[in-house]
Design goal:
Helix content of chain A: 40-55%
Number of strands of chain A: 13
Structural class of chain A: alpha/beta
CATH class of the largest domain in chain A: Alpha Beta
CATH superfamily of the largest domain in chain A: Type I PLP-dependent aspartate aminotransferase-like (Major domain)
Number of helices of chain A: 14
CATH architecture of the largest domain in chain A: 3-Layer(aba) Sandwich
Oligomer: homotetramer
Distance between the termini of chain A: 14 Å
Order of helices and strands of chain A: EHHEHEHHEHEHEHHEEHHHEEHEEEH
Largest sheet of chain A: 7 strands, mixed
């Protein structure tokens, strides 16, 4: 059955498989201490325009969020996030499990606003009782957000300004970063992100890898003994090559951006299709996730031919569903979808 | 200076001091294994009308919340609370520090509603992704709330019904329980609480003890090896007698309720005084905490003569402040306050 | 350079790569909810002769130890292990990080004895103060151990008897299980392990997979909401297929055992070679890890031609080193080593 | 029945009760922000000869150990302690519960040796795999130890030297510090401890207070937002006055040392008595805890008349028991004991 359910339905880009095959019997040191990891890190630093960056590879998104947040925060600090932020909702309490509160602020199609952030922090420090409360120590944003939306460069800079004024780190979750960078409606480059954020990750799992996220610390701010802390979280991969080879491939010949572009192109076609067929959008998303308000009976019919994500109830007769394109979406997929719709 | 800042400004009720003195040189076993603890527990069980209850003494309120929540929840569960609940706001992240998320629902003058709770839980289980989210395992309410308000018996029963339908424990934080029980506007008795809730605590610190909270498990549901778990949280008092003797005294000759009544009587006078002097109430509180909206200039004048709690900004020109009576408030205190106001 | 440093120097067995390639564009559900995971689980249950088993896939060994121990123990319980057990030494405190103490007992070439275990537990419960101590809730053994040694079936049964008498789970870390099962000096089968242990894992990372460990709960004792708990530890792989396909391949046509056998055959040759060349063994290991006492000067010469693991100082002039064969070791590797030695 | 079971069998020194009474109706700020806490801190700093010290009051010993260790260590660090150290044995895993491993080294009548410590740390850093292990970040010693023994000043300095060479904090658990300082066989003063250690605590609970331990940070090394972190551990006392008044009393007119001296004098008499009656000592203790090897039948007889602590089995026919004197032990107690023995 045709699936637009998410962007991690397929395996990995063929070039990754090819490289894994080619390098399979090289004997390499474990735990990321191999030349593919080294090469991948160098390529990422170059792509970021940030020679002083420090890059580490982890396996998955929730793991990355948990480790970055837990190792960068002091025990008495929490992380500020949108109410709809992934860390606030769909990580099974992984952040709290590591001892930190997620401090929620309002969201607008998945994004936070610098003014709300400022107001939150000023109120916190203005409260005579703030020593009895959780200190805001970091701000978490996702880009694209869980709703496919994107920050503008100015918005990122405004948020960063508040962060730095109040000594909070700015952390950007780039699980779908490739799709954000390739959007036609963005003025934010990878270099911008490296310059503005204190730490972010470049998502592999959802952009063509079997698994893997590349964490980038941009300001000489890697937590002490980070490898030991990764191990302590059960997240240190013995065969680090699996991550190194994947990212080395993704950052060779701009593959990462090309994969992003494919998803975006397919999403543009998808959007036209949806409009054409008279469906209503829940919000305007410039990336690979599209949210549609659909009549419940129609949704059930659709479910017979195509897989999509149930998002939330809209009203008694309508539901919001998500259709996602990806690095692997083909024109044939869209043709079939067109028929079905 | 006159203080209405809170209900823990003084030491302990003189009868407690007297009893501490009288028993001082008795040689008693440590860790709560003494006859004063035994006697106090028996008296509390009787007052609760709950012979099968299991009573444990802890030192403070945040400690009690942290231990009860952490020992009763499974690791994948969180605790549902009002946005203004003490565990959600003023405990420095103690709940998250022990690994559990506080799941916030709307509040109405500090109280939650059974219908909101039901809606929250139904949405949770209705979400196809709920295994990626924090399970609601317990409901936390405070009575009186942080705003001095009280649940009616029917409200408690409605909340308990939802709890039990969805296999959540109902936990009542009774830091100021004495003031709630003594209110003239309550139909909730200690026996009702013991019957309706799965676990609750009877606050000592704010109702006449130097320190101490009595946790009551009402449904044969004490966590396994609870003493060991208390110790593991660093909360096992070597000289358990200090807690046993205080609660034994508080539950002799209805002292606990009498202390509650004093605070309520004084609060009634305080309310008349406030009305008389033309101040505006932020909300109607039937217990010992009274919240007043005061013009900022007037607040500064007042602060020269009397201590109160800053609560929050009301608007640019007004502030909400809290005045609290207690077991120790005297008529003279109120006379002085009347002059000042 | 030739490497006998460890058993995870290469990528994955070619059949795994082949299968990943072949299935690459199938659109599959995430989080292990795909038919390759289902198939792999069925094959593992069959190989274990344990239809009631419950199988889950995780990414790495420390992660698996951390999650199994943390989710099966009560908060007041610790895990008993040999002083040299992996959880006691080389996991960066991952077990303590999740809140549990590792309770160390004596080891004999990496193994524990049922009599020591009994004595430990009896002393614990005999101590009047045991409620102030950490309860032994689980016993951790590795098979093969960190020293390549193996338990006999009788030894496992004796340990299990003590475990069950004192209500402790028996957990077997099978990071190198394939090499243990294939040893010529073992009477322990996979079915024995499934019958005797409460939980164990079948190591993939060190036996031919890129990554992956298969946890087997054998007694209807999977922790509640285990998927949620995996997610909470940051260990839930989005593309669960990566693990399912690997284990499905390893458990097709006995590949897992065949890989084990290759390492054992090569280890037998290695042992002959070592004896022949007059080196001394630190201990007698029936599996793929061989420990040699080597004169320091000789060690430095050797290091120029072949990679091995430094284990520990033996005396001022000698060092213990480890040479490991694996699923990927070839006759050519051994020929080259023979020349070097 | 006569009790020599421990040093916390009685309430508090009468002067403490007197002061609690006298100050009972003063209206004081909560959470330690009152003038008795301020005064007590000043007196302690003076007694320590350490004006730059930072003093905080906590309620109990395990709580203090847990908080000091957890707030001073980085997540990847553990605390080195004697195998018999209180944190390693009788704290129900409170240290591990807060995420940190206790790294055990050999003990000699409860004490550790600088040479063992050095050897442990050197081996750690010499191990090529140390990034996969728990970093030693702090050294925990108790003075007096759990066996009543004392370090000499030179021994403390030797341990401190190793600590500082390897960037570990030296933490001294002074649960019974008063009895150590008052011993006739010590050359260690409170000033020495303040000079040599990075952090230590002055035990109140076991030396005449109802509860309370005074933590002293001596090197401008108080953990950030320590009050918030105390609160987060559930350990912030609302009526901080209870601790302030007790320590203010203990550090007025040398009361703390006087209480220590009483216990020591009584212990000297006790030791003579024991020798006289022909009992054998398990070890030579210069403080208030005395360990005796007693024939099992004799022990049972003794248990009819006097309470003591079972320590451990000595052999099949003998047991080690502990008799402790305290600030409250009287000549009459010893006379009665003489009769019984």
């Amino acid at each position: 059955m045709l699936s637009f359910a998410c962007d991690y339905n397929e395996g990995a880009h063929p070039k990754i498989l090819e490289k894994l095959m080619k390098t399979n019997f090289e004997q390499l040191a474990g735990y990321g201490d191999d030349h593919y990891c080294t090469s991948a890190k160098a390529k990422i630093k170059e792509a970021c325009g940030c020679p002083e960056a420090d890059v580490h590879f982890l396996v998955g998104g929730t793991q990355t969020n948990q480790i970055v947040i837990a190792t960068m925060l002091a025990p008495y600090e929490g992380v500020v996030a949108a109410k709809t932020g992934h860390v606030a909702t769909h990580e099974a309490g992984a952040i709290e499990h590591s001892g930190h509160k997620v401090l929620e602020i309002p969201e607008y199609d998945g994004k936070i606003k610098a003014c709300d952030l400022r107001s939150y922090v000023e109120t916190f420090y203005g409260d005579g009782n703030h020593e009895h409360m959780v200190f805001p120590g970091m701000v978490y944003i996702s880009h694209p957000t869980e709703y496919g939306t994107l920050y503008s460069r100015q918005e990122l800079e405004d948020i960063a300004e508040v962060c730095h004024e109040f000594k909070m780190s700015l952390y950007l979750d780039g699980a779908r970063l490739g799709y954000g960078l390739a959007s036609r409606q963005t003025d934010v480059s990878l270099q911008d992100i490296a310059r503005i954020c204190d730490v972010f990750y470049i998502g592999g799992t959802k952009v063509g890898a079997f698994c893997g996220e590349a964490v980038v610390f941009t300001k000489n701010n890697t937590p002490n003994h980070f490898l030991t802390q990764i191990k302590q979280h059960g997240a240190l991969l013995a065969k680090g090559r699996l991550l190194g080879i994947q990212f080395d491939t993704l950052f060779t010949d701009d593959l990462y951006l090309k994969l992003g572009r494919n998803a975006i192109e397919k999403a543009e076609t998808l959007k036209s299709l949806i409009k054409e067929k008279g469906y209503r959008f829940h919000l305007e998303s410039p990336t690979n996730q599209q949210f549609i308000i659909i009549e419940n009976g129609r949704m059930e019919e659709l479910a017979e031919d195509v897989m999509f994500s149930f998002w939330e109830k809209y009203d008694d007769n309508h539901t919001i569903i998500r259709l996602a394109t990806s690095w692997a979406t083909t024109d044939e997929d869209l043709d079939k979808l067109a028929e079905v719709l």
